[in-house]
Amino acid sequence: MTSLTLTPLSGIPLIRRNDNLADIICKALEQNRISLQDGDILILAQKIVSKAEGRTVNLADIAPSQRAIRLAVQTDKDPRLVELILQESAEVLRSRLGAIIVEHRLGFVCANAGIDHSNVNPPSPIKLVEDSEDLGNLDHEDWVLLLPIAPDRSAEEIRNAIHVETGKRIGVLIIDSHGRAWRNGTVGVAIGIAGMPGLEDLRGKPDLLGYTLQVTTVGAADELAAAASLMMGQAAEGTPVVHARGFPYPLREASLKELIRPKEQDLFR
Hints:
The chain is an alpha+beta fold. The protein is 27% helix and 23% strand. It has 2 domains: 169 residues, CATH 3.30.1330.100; 91 residues, CofE-like fold (Alpha-Beta Complex), CATH 3.90.1660.10. It has 7 helices and 12 strands. A hairpin with a 4-residue loop joins β5 and β6.
């Protein structure tokens, strides 16, 4: 077992739509004096991927449906936000004051479809002129951020671009903060995977006493996501990319799908 080293990359600027994340990360690696090696992993906060992909939405542009209005009354939420939650979800599973628990269109269960208010900047004035007739609405409270459309694809594109730049075989992990049904507090979890395992199957391997493991599978991507989330922070830290070296499992091709529990096995539904 080698040591696992996590290094948050300083020098990442505020990300705007159409920014080249691979280029920005390569420059940050150089500034932080990190030379990529085969087997390294780069962990990205979902927020910068969503911003680069233009997933920022102005609530002023959203017209809530009657279903959204009814659910907004039940949960004391902005009906425009509820409309976005419904659009991003496959199914509403639970709701209470302040929270709507959904099966996201990407397959996992989360609160409020992963839509975020914090640290969401409106587009630049130039971009706003290009995209909107409402030039006066720059209220930060009206802007929200949706999850990437296809996080696995986003991770793969970033991985490929960095491979072209560096020649190194690496993994890329896109993470978000989720709550859990059986414990308090949010933790970092994987929502996009490229070039690294989501699950590591230990069934058939012996433990210290020689007993053959029967059911053990490790959520390796989520474990790394949680560790990287500690380094990123949740507020004003400004370190949305973490470099990892010493990941204890071999890199391989994978996708988020292997981390999603099938509905028929989900005892919390």
